[in-house]
Specification:
This protein has 595 residues and is an all-beta fold. Helix content is 2%, strand content 44%. It is globular, with a radius of gyration of 34 Å.
Protein backbone atom coordinates (compact mmCIF):
# COMPACT_ATOMS: atom_id res chain seq x y z
CA UNK A 1 0.00 0.00 0.00
CA UNK A 2 1.36 3.39 -0.99
CA UNK A 3 1.84 5.84 1.88
CA UNK A 4 2.30 9.59 1.38
CA UNK A 5 4.31 12.08 3.44
CA UNK A 6 4.10 15.75 2.55
CA UNK A 7 7.74 16.86 2.78
CA UNK A 8 7.89 19.39 -0.01
CA UNK A 9 5.43 21.47 -1.99
CA UNK A 10 6.17 19.41 -5.10
CA UNK A 11 5.30 16.15 -3.39
CA UNK A 12 2.30 17.83 -1.81
CA UNK A 13 0.92 18.87 -5.22
CA UNK A 14 1.57 15.46 -6.71
CA UNK A 15 -0.34 13.81 -3.90
CA UNK A 16 -3.38 15.97 -4.59
CA UNK A 17 -3.32 14.87 -8.22
CA UNK A 18 -3.02 11.21 -7.28
CA UNK A 19 -5.97 11.40 -4.90
CA UNK A 20 -8.25 13.18 -7.38
CA UNK A 21 -9.67 9.89 -8.77
CA UNK A 22 -11.05 8.65 -5.41
CA UNK A 23 -14.76 9.46 -5.06
CA UNK A 24 -16.68 8.43 -1.92
CA UNK A 25 -20.27 7.34 -2.52
CA UNK A 26 -22.65 7.42 0.46
CA UNK A 27 -26.06 5.71 0.46
CA UNK A 28 -28.56 6.40 3.23
CA UNK A 29 -29.62 3.16 4.92
CA UNK A 30 -33.09 4.16 6.13
CA UNK A 31 -35.05 2.67 3.21
CA UNK A 32 -32.72 0.02 1.78
CA UNK A 33 -31.07 -1.63 4.77
CA UNK A 34 -30.36 -5.29 4.04
CA UNK A 35 -28.09 -5.09 0.98
CA UNK A 36 -27.02 -2.72 -1.75
CA UNK A 37 -24.55 -2.97 -4.64
CA UNK A 38 -22.82 -0.38 -6.79
CA UNK A 39 -22.01 -0.98 -10.47
CA UNK A 40 -19.73 1.64 -12.04
CA UNK A 41 -18.13 2.10 -15.44
CA UNK A 42 -16.38 4.82 -17.44
CA UNK A 43 -17.59 6.47 -20.65
CA UNK A 44 -15.26 4.24 -22.67
CA UNK A 45 -16.68 1.07 -21.12
CA UNK A 46 -13.98 0.40 -18.47
CA UNK A 47 -15.56 -1.44 -15.55
CA UNK A 48 -15.09 0.09 -12.10
CA UNK A 49 -17.31 -2.54 -10.47
CA UNK A 50 -18.32 -6.01 -11.63
CA UNK A 51 -21.89 -6.89 -12.49
CA UNK A 52 -24.15 -7.46 -10.60
CA UNK A 53 -22.20 -4.87 -8.68
CA UNK A 54 -19.80 -4.46 -5.75
CA UNK A 55 -21.60 -4.83 -2.40
CA UNK A 56 -21.50 -1.95 0.04
CA UNK A 57 -19.93 -3.19 3.26
CA UNK A 58 -18.63 -0.20 5.23
CA UNK A 59 -21.08 1.72 7.42
CA UNK A 60 -20.45 5.22 8.79
CA UNK A 61 -22.58 7.38 11.04
CA UNK A 62 -22.78 11.04 10.07
CA UNK A 63 -24.90 13.49 12.01
CA UNK A 64 -26.70 10.60 13.72
CA UNK A 65 -27.62 8.94 10.39
CA UNK A 66 -26.17 5.63 9.11
CA UNK A 67 -24.81 5.52 5.56
CA UNK A 68 -23.17 2.90 3.45
CA UNK A 69 -19.84 4.13 2.13
CA UNK A 70 -17.79 2.99 -0.85
CA UNK A 71 -14.66 4.54 -2.40
CA UNK A 72 -14.61 4.41 -6.23
CA UNK A 73 -11.29 4.89 -8.00
CA UNK A 74 -12.19 6.62 -11.27
CA UNK A 75 -8.54 7.10 -12.23
CA UNK A 76 -8.05 9.92 -14.69
CA UNK A 77 -11.55 9.57 -16.14
CA UNK A 78 -13.57 12.74 -15.75
CA UNK A 79 -16.77 11.04 -16.92
CA UNK A 80 -18.17 7.85 -15.44
CA UNK A 81 -21.52 6.24 -14.69
CA UNK A 82 -23.13 4.28 -11.89
CA UNK A 83 -26.10 2.08 -10.99
CA UNK A 84 -27.40 1.02 -7.57
CA UNK A 85 -28.96 -2.44 -7.44
CA UNK A 86 -30.13 -5.18 -5.07
CA UNK A 87 -32.75 -7.94 -5.02
CA UNK A 88 -35.51 -5.38 -5.62
CA UNK A 89 -34.05 -4.29 -8.95
CA UNK A 90 -31.79 -1.45 -10.04
CA UNK A 91 -31.80 2.25 -10.72
CA UNK A 92 -31.54 3.84 -14.13
CA UNK A 93 -28.06 4.70 -15.43
CA UNK A 94 -26.77 7.76 -13.62
CA UNK A 95 -23.85 10.06 -14.26
CA UNK A 96 -21.09 9.62 -11.71
CA UNK A 97 -20.34 12.66 -9.52
CA UNK A 98 -17.02 14.50 -9.52
CA UNK A 99 -16.90 14.85 -5.72
CA UNK A 100 -18.04 12.84 -2.69
CA UNK A 101 -21.84 12.56 -2.95
CA UNK A 102 -24.73 11.40 -0.74
CA UNK A 103 -27.69 9.44 -2.12
CA UNK A 104 -31.00 8.24 -0.79
CA UNK A 105 -31.94 4.90 -2.40
CA UNK A 106 -35.47 3.57 -2.14
CA UNK A 107 -37.74 1.02 -3.79
CA UNK A 108 -39.67 2.36 -6.74
CA UNK A 109 -38.86 3.71 -10.18
CA UNK A 110 -39.14 2.03 -13.57
CA UNK A 111 -36.47 -0.58 -12.76
CA UNK A 112 -37.32 -1.28 -9.15
CA UNK A 113 -35.09 1.23 -7.38
CA UNK A 114 -34.73 4.97 -7.44
CA UNK A 115 -31.77 7.05 -6.20
CA UNK A 116 -31.72 10.76 -5.54
CA UNK A 117 -28.79 12.93 -4.47
CA UNK A 118 -29.18 14.78 -1.19
CA UNK A 119 -27.36 18.03 -0.50
CA UNK A 120 -26.09 19.20 2.89
CA UNK A 121 -26.39 15.77 4.47
CA UNK A 122 -24.06 16.87 7.22
CA UNK A 123 -24.82 20.44 8.27
CA UNK A 124 -22.01 20.31 10.84
CA UNK A 125 -19.34 19.69 8.22
CA UNK A 126 -16.34 22.04 8.42
CA UNK A 127 -14.08 20.82 5.63
CA UNK A 128 -11.16 20.36 8.04
CA UNK A 129 -9.76 16.87 8.60
CA UNK A 130 -7.21 15.06 10.69
CA UNK A 131 -4.77 13.32 8.32
CA UNK A 132 -2.19 10.74 9.38
CA UNK A 133 0.14 8.06 8.11
CA UNK A 134 -1.42 5.34 10.26
CA UNK A 135 -4.98 6.50 10.80
CA UNK A 136 -5.98 7.07 7.16
CA UNK A 137 -2.83 6.93 5.00
CA UNK A 138 -2.84 10.74 4.65
CA UNK A 139 -6.16 10.55 2.75
CA UNK A 140 -9.32 12.53 3.40
CA UNK A 141 -11.59 10.47 5.62
CA UNK A 142 -15.06 11.61 6.65
CA UNK A 143 -14.73 9.80 9.97
CA UNK A 144 -11.83 12.17 10.77
CA UNK A 145 -13.63 15.39 9.77
CA UNK A 146 -13.95 18.09 12.42
CA UNK A 147 -17.52 19.11 13.26
CA UNK A 148 -19.02 22.48 14.14
CA UNK A 149 -19.86 23.35 17.74
CA UNK A 150 -22.13 25.94 19.28
CA UNK A 151 -19.13 28.28 19.42
CA UNK A 152 -18.27 29.98 16.14
CA UNK A 153 -14.96 28.82 14.64
CA UNK A 154 -14.42 26.16 17.31
CA UNK A 155 -14.57 22.61 15.90
CA UNK A 156 -14.37 19.15 17.47
CA UNK A 157 -13.46 15.64 16.38
CA UNK A 158 -14.76 13.13 18.89
CA UNK A 159 -13.63 9.65 19.95
CA UNK A 160 -11.22 8.78 17.17
CA UNK A 161 -8.18 6.55 17.27
CA UNK A 162 -4.95 8.47 16.81
CA UNK A 163 -1.43 7.11 16.50
CA UNK A 164 1.68 7.64 14.40
CA UNK A 165 2.15 11.05 12.74
CA UNK A 166 -0.70 13.41 11.90
CA UNK A 167 -1.69 17.00 11.11
CA UNK A 168 -4.77 19.09 10.28
CA UNK A 169 -5.70 20.15 6.73
CA UNK A 170 -8.68 20.98 4.58
CA UNK A 171 -9.90 18.90 1.64
CA UNK A 172 -7.56 20.40 -0.99
CA UNK A 173 -4.61 21.11 1.36
CA UNK A 174 -4.76 24.87 0.82
CA UNK A 175 -4.69 24.82 4.61
CA UNK A 176 -2.01 22.60 6.16
CA UNK A 177 -1.78 23.05 9.93
CA UNK A 178 1.14 21.65 11.91
CA UNK A 179 4.30 22.66 13.76
CA UNK A 180 7.11 24.40 11.90
CA UNK A 181 10.72 23.23 11.51
CA UNK A 182 10.41 19.88 13.31
CA UNK A 183 7.83 17.27 14.22
CA UNK A 184 6.41 17.93 17.66
CA UNK A 185 4.74 15.98 20.44
CA UNK A 186 1.23 17.03 21.38
CA UNK A 187 0.32 16.25 24.98
CA UNK A 188 -3.17 15.55 26.28
CA UNK A 189 -4.90 18.59 27.80
CA UNK A 190 -2.12 20.91 26.56
CA UNK A 191 -3.14 23.27 23.69
CA UNK A 192 -0.58 23.83 20.95
CA UNK A 193 -0.47 26.66 18.40
CA UNK A 194 -0.57 25.67 14.71
CA UNK A 195 1.19 27.09 11.68
CA UNK A 196 -0.53 27.14 8.28
CA UNK A 197 2.14 26.31 5.72
CA UNK A 198 2.82 23.75 3.00
CA UNK A 199 6.14 23.16 4.83
CA UNK A 200 4.56 22.53 8.23
CA UNK A 201 5.59 19.30 9.95
CA UNK A 202 3.63 16.66 11.82
CA UNK A 203 2.42 15.95 15.35
CA UNK A 204 2.68 12.74 17.34
CA UNK A 205 1.48 11.53 20.75
CA UNK A 206 3.21 9.37 23.36
CA UNK A 207 1.11 6.33 22.47
CA UNK A 208 -2.13 5.26 20.82
CA UNK A 209 -5.16 7.21 22.06
CA UNK A 210 -8.91 7.28 21.76
CA UNK A 211 -9.09 11.04 21.63
CA UNK A 212 -11.36 14.03 21.22
CA UNK A 213 -9.71 16.97 19.43
CA UNK A 214 -10.66 20.64 19.59
CA UNK A 215 -9.61 23.01 16.78
CA UNK A 216 -9.95 26.64 17.84
CA UNK A 217 -9.75 29.04 14.87
CA UNK A 218 -11.08 32.15 16.58
CA UNK A 219 -7.67 33.85 16.44
CA UNK A 220 -5.14 34.38 13.66
CA UNK A 221 -3.13 31.34 14.75
CA UNK A 222 -5.30 28.21 15.21
CA UNK A 223 -4.91 26.15 18.40
CA UNK A 224 -5.23 22.36 18.61
CA UNK A 225 -5.78 20.35 21.80
CA UNK A 226 -7.03 16.91 22.71
CA UNK A 227 -8.34 14.91 25.62
CA UNK A 228 -8.58 11.16 25.88
CA UNK A 229 -7.12 7.98 27.23
CA UNK A 230 -4.42 5.65 26.00
CA UNK A 231 -5.58 2.63 24.09
CA UNK A 232 -4.05 -0.67 23.06
CA UNK A 233 -2.20 -0.64 19.78
CA UNK A 234 -3.41 -2.40 16.65
CA UNK A 235 0.02 -3.97 16.12
CA UNK A 236 0.41 -7.73 16.59
CA UNK A 237 2.78 -10.58 15.96
CA UNK A 238 0.65 -13.15 14.15
CA UNK A 239 1.81 -16.59 13.19
CA UNK A 240 1.67 -20.29 13.77
CA UNK A 241 2.10 -19.66 17.50
CA UNK A 242 -1.35 -18.01 17.77
CA UNK A 243 -3.16 -19.37 14.72
CA UNK A 244 -2.50 -16.14 12.80
CA UNK A 245 -4.99 -14.21 14.94
CA UNK A 246 -5.11 -11.08 17.09
CA UNK A 247 -3.85 -12.24 20.47
CA UNK A 248 -3.31 -9.95 23.46
CA UNK A 249 -0.24 -11.97 24.49
CA UNK A 250 1.42 -10.94 21.22
CA UNK A 251 0.22 -7.33 21.04
CA UNK A 252 2.86 -4.61 20.75
CA UNK A 253 2.95 -1.70 23.20
CA UNK A 254 2.48 1.73 21.60
CA UNK A 255 5.14 4.29 22.57
CA UNK A 256 4.04 6.99 20.11
CA UNK A 257 5.70 8.52 17.03
CA UNK A 258 5.26 5.23 15.18
CA UNK A 259 7.26 3.16 17.68
CA UNK A 260 5.86 -0.15 18.98
CA UNK A 261 7.57 -2.70 21.20
CA UNK A 262 7.00 -6.34 22.11
CA UNK A 263 9.09 -7.58 25.05
CA UNK A 264 8.33 -11.28 25.07
CA UNK A 265 10.45 -14.32 24.32
CA UNK A 266 9.69 -15.65 20.83
CA UNK A 267 11.37 -18.89 19.81
CA UNK A 268 12.56 -19.82 16.35
CA UNK A 269 10.78 -23.11 17.01
CA UNK A 270 7.47 -21.20 17.19
CA UNK A 271 7.45 -21.15 13.39
CA UNK A 272 6.42 -18.63 10.77
CA UNK A 273 4.98 -15.20 11.54
CA UNK A 274 4.28 -11.72 10.25
CA UNK A 275 3.67 -8.33 11.87
CA UNK A 276 0.31 -6.62 11.38
CA UNK A 277 -0.19 -2.92 11.98
CA UNK A 278 -3.45 -1.05 11.47
CA UNK A 279 -4.80 -3.75 9.09
CA UNK A 280 -1.54 -3.99 7.08
CA UNK A 281 0.49 -7.22 6.97
CA UNK A 282 4.28 -6.86 6.97
CA UNK A 283 6.95 -9.39 6.07
CA UNK A 284 10.34 -9.49 4.35
CA UNK A 285 10.41 -8.76 0.59
CA UNK A 286 12.23 -11.91 -0.53
CA UNK A 287 12.16 -14.75 -3.00
CA UNK A 288 12.38 -17.25 -0.16
CA UNK A 289 9.35 -18.49 1.73
CA UNK A 290 9.71 -18.23 4.66
CA UNK A 291 12.39 -15.54 4.85
CA UNK A 292 14.85 -15.52 7.75
CA UNK A 293 14.56 -12.43 9.95
CA UNK A 294 18.07 -11.68 11.17
CA UNK A 295 18.84 -9.90 14.43
CA UNK A 296 19.34 -6.16 14.12
CA UNK A 297 17.22 -3.84 11.93
CA UNK A 298 15.35 -5.05 8.83
CA UNK A 299 13.07 -3.20 6.41
CA UNK A 300 9.63 -4.74 6.11
CA UNK A 301 6.99 -4.45 3.43
CA UNK A 302 4.49 -6.48 1.47
CA UNK A 303 6.64 -9.56 1.87
CA UNK A 304 7.01 -13.17 2.83
CA UNK A 305 6.34 -14.95 6.11
CA UNK A 306 9.31 -14.74 8.50
CA UNK A 307 11.18 -17.14 10.78
CA UNK A 308 14.03 -16.53 13.21
CA UNK A 309 17.44 -18.17 12.74
CA UNK A 310 17.29 -21.78 13.88
CA UNK A 311 18.02 -22.43 17.55
CA UNK A 312 17.61 -18.78 18.66
CA UNK A 313 14.96 -16.66 20.31
CA UNK A 314 14.09 -12.97 20.32
CA UNK A 315 13.53 -11.20 23.63
CA UNK A 316 12.44 -7.83 22.23
CA UNK A 317 11.05 -6.53 18.94
CA UNK A 318 10.68 -2.84 18.06
CA UNK A 319 8.57 -1.83 15.07
CA UNK A 320 9.00 1.62 13.50
CA UNK A 321 6.34 3.04 11.17
CA UNK A 322 7.80 6.13 9.54
CA UNK A 323 6.01 9.22 8.23
CA UNK A 324 6.45 8.15 4.61
CA UNK A 325 4.93 4.75 5.30
CA UNK A 326 8.18 2.77 5.35
CA UNK A 327 8.39 0.14 8.07
CA UNK A 328 11.35 -1.44 9.84
CA UNK A 329 11.77 -3.85 12.72
CA UNK A 330 14.65 -4.15 15.18
CA UNK A 331 15.04 -7.53 16.87
CA UNK A 332 17.16 -8.20 19.97
CA UNK A 333 18.43 -11.75 20.47
CA UNK A 334 17.92 -13.40 23.83
CA UNK A 335 20.53 -15.36 25.75
CA UNK A 336 19.68 -18.97 26.53
CA UNK A 337 19.72 -20.00 30.20
CA UNK A 338 20.35 -23.69 30.76
CA UNK A 339 18.13 -25.91 32.90
CA UNK A 340 14.46 -26.21 33.73
CA UNK A 341 12.59 -24.40 36.51
CA UNK A 342 9.37 -24.42 38.46
CA UNK A 343 7.71 -21.17 37.33
CA UNK A 344 4.50 -19.80 38.81
CA UNK A 345 2.85 -16.87 40.50
CA UNK A 346 4.69 -17.90 43.68
CA UNK A 347 7.90 -16.56 42.02
CA UNK A 348 6.38 -14.16 39.48
CA UNK A 349 6.84 -16.78 36.74
CA UNK A 350 10.58 -16.14 36.67
CA UNK A 351 13.34 -18.68 35.96
CA UNK A 352 14.53 -18.40 39.58
CA UNK A 353 17.62 -20.35 40.62
CA UNK A 354 15.90 -21.26 43.91
CA UNK A 355 13.36 -23.22 41.86
CA UNK A 356 15.78 -24.90 39.43
CA UNK A 357 15.51 -28.67 39.01
CA UNK A 358 18.45 -31.06 39.31
CA UNK A 359 18.78 -33.84 36.73
CA UNK A 360 19.16 -37.00 38.83
CA UNK A 361 19.13 -39.43 35.91
CA UNK A 362 18.80 -39.08 32.16
CA UNK A 363 15.45 -37.36 31.57
CA UNK A 364 14.58 -37.33 35.29
CA UNK A 365 14.51 -33.99 37.19
CA UNK A 366 13.90 -33.30 40.88
CA UNK A 367 13.25 -30.23 43.03
CA UNK A 368 13.19 -30.68 46.82
CA UNK A 369 11.78 -28.87 49.85
CA UNK A 370 9.62 -26.33 48.05
CA UNK A 371 6.46 -24.70 49.42
CA UNK A 372 3.96 -24.58 46.57
CA UNK A 373 0.56 -22.98 45.95
CA UNK A 374 -1.41 -21.26 43.21
CA UNK A 375 -0.58 -21.72 39.53
CA UNK A 376 2.66 -23.06 38.09
CA UNK A 377 4.39 -24.82 35.20
CA UNK A 378 7.74 -26.52 34.68
CA UNK A 379 9.68 -24.91 31.85
CA UNK A 380 13.05 -23.73 30.66
CA UNK A 381 13.96 -20.06 30.92
CA UNK A 382 12.87 -19.40 27.33
CA UNK A 383 9.56 -21.33 27.39
CA UNK A 384 10.98 -23.20 24.45
CA UNK A 385 11.89 -26.89 24.46
CA UNK A 386 10.41 -27.49 27.93
CA UNK A 387 6.97 -26.09 28.77
CA UNK A 388 5.12 -28.69 30.82
CA UNK A 389 1.56 -28.16 32.02
CA UNK A 390 -1.80 -29.79 32.40
CA UNK A 391 -3.80 -31.03 29.43
CA UNK A 392 -7.10 -29.75 30.86
CA UNK A 393 -6.24 -27.45 33.81
CA UNK A 394 -7.34 -29.94 36.47
CA UNK A 395 -5.67 -30.12 39.88
CA UNK A 396 -2.41 -32.02 40.31
CA UNK A 397 -2.84 -35.08 42.56
CA UNK A 398 -0.30 -35.39 45.37
CA UNK A 399 1.56 -38.67 45.84
CA UNK A 400 0.61 -40.18 42.51
CA UNK A 401 1.80 -40.05 38.90
CA UNK A 402 0.24 -37.26 36.82
CA UNK A 403 0.54 -37.43 33.02
CA UNK A 404 1.33 -33.95 31.71
CA UNK A 405 1.84 -32.35 28.30
CA UNK A 406 4.59 -30.24 26.77
CA UNK A 407 4.10 -27.17 24.60
CA UNK A 408 2.63 -23.70 24.42
CA UNK A 409 -0.94 -25.02 24.47
CA UNK A 410 -0.51 -26.70 27.87
CA UNK A 411 -2.53 -25.33 30.78
CA UNK A 412 -1.18 -24.10 34.11
CA UNK A 413 -0.95 -26.63 36.95
CA UNK A 414 -2.95 -26.01 40.11
CA UNK A 415 -3.15 -27.70 43.55
CA UNK A 416 -6.16 -28.20 45.79
CA UNK A 417 -4.35 -26.42 48.65
CA UNK A 418 -0.89 -25.27 49.75
CA UNK A 419 1.76 -28.00 50.10
CA UNK A 420 5.21 -28.29 51.55
CA UNK A 421 6.69 -30.50 48.85
CA UNK A 422 9.49 -32.84 49.84
CA UNK A 423 10.13 -33.87 46.21
CA UNK A 424 8.77 -32.59 42.90
CA UNK A 425 9.80 -35.08 40.24
CA UNK A 426 9.48 -34.69 36.45
CA UNK A 427 10.21 -37.78 34.37
CA UNK A 428 10.50 -37.18 30.63
CA UNK A 429 12.57 -40.27 29.89
CA UNK A 430 9.60 -42.18 28.46
CA UNK A 431 7.04 -41.51 25.75
CA UNK A 432 4.80 -39.46 28.06
CA UNK A 433 6.08 -36.96 30.65
CA UNK A 434 5.05 -37.75 34.24
CA UNK A 435 4.94 -35.36 37.20
CA UNK A 436 4.92 -36.69 40.77
CA UNK A 437 4.73 -34.49 43.87
CA UNK A 438 5.33 -35.81 47.38
CA UNK A 439 4.53 -33.64 50.37
CA UNK A 440 2.13 -32.58 53.08
CA UNK A 441 -0.57 -29.94 53.14
CA UNK A 442 0.51 -26.79 54.98
CA UNK A 443 -0.79 -23.36 55.81
CA UNK A 444 -1.44 -20.81 53.10
CA UNK A 445 0.89 -18.00 54.21
CA UNK A 446 -1.88 -15.48 53.54
CA UNK A 447 -3.07 -13.39 56.51
CA UNK A 448 -5.30 -10.51 57.54
CA UNK A 449 -2.99 -7.97 59.18
CA UNK A 450 -3.88 -5.08 61.52
CA UNK A 451 -1.98 -3.01 64.06
CA UNK A 452 -3.44 -5.24 66.80
CA UNK A 453 -3.13 -8.61 65.09
CA UNK A 454 0.28 -8.16 63.49
CA UNK A 455 1.24 -9.68 60.12
CA UNK A 456 1.21 -13.43 60.78
CA UNK A 457 -1.40 -14.22 63.39
CA UNK A 458 -2.23 -17.90 62.97
CA UNK A 459 -5.88 -17.34 63.85
CA UNK A 460 -6.15 -14.91 60.94
CA UNK A 461 -4.58 -17.12 58.25
CA UNK A 462 -6.61 -17.98 55.16
CA UNK A 463 -7.50 -21.50 54.05
CA UNK A 464 -6.19 -22.44 50.59
CA UNK A 465 -9.05 -23.93 48.54
CA UNK A 466 -6.88 -24.42 45.46
CA UNK A 467 -6.64 -22.65 42.10
CA UNK A 468 -5.83 -19.30 43.74
CA UNK A 469 -8.94 -19.12 45.93
CA UNK A 470 -8.51 -18.44 49.68
CA UNK A 471 -11.12 -17.99 52.42
CA UNK A 472 -11.20 -16.90 56.06
CA UNK A 473 -14.20 -16.89 58.39
CA UNK A 474 -13.45 -14.43 61.18
CA UNK A 475 -15.10 -11.27 62.44
CA UNK A 476 -13.30 -7.93 62.16
CA UNK A 477 -14.65 -4.51 63.07
CA UNK A 478 -13.42 -1.03 64.01
CA UNK A 479 -9.96 -1.64 62.56
CA UNK A 480 -8.28 -1.14 59.17
CA UNK A 481 -6.40 -4.03 57.64
CA UNK A 482 -4.05 -5.28 54.91
CA UNK A 483 -3.67 -8.67 53.28
CA UNK A 484 -0.27 -10.36 53.63
CA UNK A 485 0.60 -12.74 50.77
CA UNK A 486 3.77 -14.73 51.37
CA UNK A 487 5.34 -11.89 53.33
CA UNK A 488 4.21 -9.07 50.98
CA UNK A 489 1.59 -6.54 52.07
CA UNK A 490 -1.32 -5.74 49.73
CA UNK A 491 -3.84 -2.94 50.06
CA UNK A 492 -5.85 -0.36 48.14
CA UNK A 493 -4.24 1.81 45.46
CA UNK A 494 -3.78 5.43 46.53
CA UNK A 495 -6.87 7.62 45.99
CA UNK A 496 -8.81 4.68 44.59
CA UNK A 497 -11.59 4.78 47.16
CA UNK A 498 -12.84 7.57 49.41
CA UNK A 499 -11.08 7.16 52.75
CA UNK A 500 -10.03 3.67 51.54
CA UNK A 501 -13.48 2.35 52.50
CA UNK A 502 -14.66 -0.63 50.46
CA UNK A 503 -18.13 -2.13 50.31
CA UNK A 504 -19.35 -5.60 51.01
CA UNK A 505 -19.75 -8.25 48.28
CA UNK A 506 -17.56 -6.17 45.94
CA UNK A 507 -14.47 -7.60 44.27
CA UNK A 508 -11.58 -5.17 44.79
CA UNK A 509 -8.19 -5.51 43.08
CA UNK A 510 -5.32 -4.89 45.51
CA UNK A 511 -1.80 -3.62 44.89
CA UNK A 512 1.45 -4.51 46.60
CA UNK A 513 2.32 -1.88 49.19
CA UNK A 514 -1.18 -0.36 48.99
CA UNK A 515 -3.01 1.60 51.68
CA UNK A 516 -4.83 -0.08 54.56
CA UNK A 517 -8.38 -1.22 53.80
CA UNK A 518 -11.25 0.24 55.79
CA UNK A 519 -14.92 -0.66 56.12
CA UNK A 520 -17.95 1.48 56.89
CA UNK A 521 -18.40 2.64 60.48
CA UNK A 522 -20.48 0.47 62.81
CA UNK A 523 -20.23 -2.53 60.48
CA UNK A 524 -18.31 -5.77 60.68
CA UNK A 525 -16.69 -8.25 58.34
CA UNK A 526 -17.93 -11.81 58.81
CA UNK A 527 -15.67 -13.52 56.26
CA UNK A 528 -13.00 -12.79 53.66
CA UNK A 529 -12.38 -14.17 50.16
CA UNK A 530 -9.07 -13.62 48.34
CA UNK A 531 -8.30 -14.66 44.76
CA UNK A 532 -4.91 -14.67 43.10
CA UNK A 533 -4.97 -15.07 39.31
CA UNK A 534 -2.44 -17.04 37.32
CA UNK A 535 -0.60 -13.79 36.54
CA UNK A 536 -0.46 -12.76 40.21
CA UNK A 537 -3.31 -10.23 40.46
CA UNK A 538 -4.62 -10.20 44.06
CA UNK A 539 -8.30 -9.36 44.69
CA UNK A 540 -10.47 -9.40 47.80
CA UNK A 541 -14.18 -9.59 48.58
CA UNK A 542 -15.54 -9.14 52.10
CA UNK A 543 -18.85 -10.47 53.36
CA UNK A 544 -20.76 -8.55 56.04
CA UNK A 545 -21.06 -9.99 59.53
CA UNK A 546 -22.84 -8.94 62.74
CA UNK A 547 -21.58 -5.73 64.32
CA UNK A 548 -21.19 -5.83 68.14
CA UNK A 549 -21.26 -2.54 70.04
CA UNK A 550 -19.18 -3.60 73.07
CA UNK A 551 -17.37 -0.52 74.29
CA UNK A 552 -17.37 -1.62 77.95
CA UNK A 553 -17.21 -4.78 80.06
CA UNK A 554 -20.31 -5.76 81.96
CA UNK A 555 -19.74 -6.37 85.70
CA UNK A 556 -20.76 -9.80 86.99
CA UNK A 557 -20.95 -11.34 90.43
CA UNK A 558 -17.67 -11.99 92.15
CA UNK A 559 -16.31 -15.47 91.95
CA UNK A 560 -12.78 -16.10 93.12
CA UNK A 561 -12.80 -19.38 91.27
CA UNK A 562 -14.16 -17.90 88.00
CA UNK A 563 -12.10 -18.40 84.85
CA UNK A 564 -9.74 -15.63 83.76
CA UNK A 565 -10.66 -13.74 80.59
CA UNK A 566 -8.77 -11.05 78.70
CA UNK A 567 -10.18 -8.13 76.73
CA UNK A 568 -8.52 -5.46 74.59
CA UNK A 569 -8.98 -1.78 75.40
CA UNK A 570 -12.07 -1.65 73.20
CA UNK A 571 -13.74 -4.26 75.38
CA UNK A 572 -13.52 -7.04 72.78
CA UNK A 573 -12.55 -10.46 74.08
CA UNK A 574 -8.97 -11.35 73.15
CA UNK A 575 -8.46 -14.92 72.01
CA UNK A 576 -4.75 -14.56 71.27
CA UNK A 577 -2.44 -12.50 73.49
CA UNK A 578 0.54 -10.67 72.09
CA UNK A 579 2.49 -7.60 73.22
CA UNK A 580 0.25 -4.79 74.43
CA UNK A 581 -2.12 -3.61 77.18
CA UNK A 582 -5.08 -5.86 78.06
CA UNK A 583 -7.84 -5.96 80.68
CA UNK A 584 -7.81 -9.06 82.90
CA UNK A 585 -11.24 -10.07 84.22
CA UNK A 586 -11.97 -12.74 86.87
CA UNK A 587 -15.44 -12.71 88.28
CA UNK A 588 -16.18 -9.07 89.16
CA UNK A 589 -12.55 -8.04 89.40
CA UNK A 590 -10.81 -6.28 86.53
CA UNK A 591 -7.21 -5.13 86.28
CA UNK A 592 -4.96 -3.82 83.53
CA UNK A 593 -2.03 -6.02 82.56
CA UNK A 594 0.87 -5.48 80.20
CA UNK A 595 2.32 -8.28 78.10
Amino acid sequence: MKKIYFLTLAIFCACIANAAGIINIYAKKSNVTTSLNLYAWTSNGELLGNWPGTPFSETVNIGGVDYWKMAVNTGTNATWNLIFNNSNGQTVDMKGPSTDTYYEVATGGSKGLIATTVADMNPNSTGFYLYGNEINNWNKDSSYEFQKTTTDKVYTLENVKVCGFFKVGNSDWTASFGPMNNNAAIIANTPITLTNSADSKNFYTDGTYIATFTLDMTNESPVLSFTGSKSNSEVYLKGEINNWSDNADWQFNSLGAGVYTLEKAFQASAGQFKITANSNWYGIPSENEPAILQYGTTTLGDGRNMILPEGTFAEKMTLNINEDGSVSISVEEGVFVEGIFLRGNINNWEADSAYKFTETAEGVYELKNIRLQGYFKIADAQWAKHNYGSADGSNIKIGTANYVVNGGESKNFTLNETYQCSVIKLDISGDSPILTISGEATTSGIFVATNTLGNDNAEWEFIDNGAGYYTLENTLQDEDFNIIVNGKSYGIAANHYTDNVIGYDEVIELVEGGNKIAIAEESAIGSFEVTITDNGVVSIMIIEGEYTNSSAIEIVDADNNAPIEYFNLQGVKATHLEKGIFIKKQGNKTTKVIF
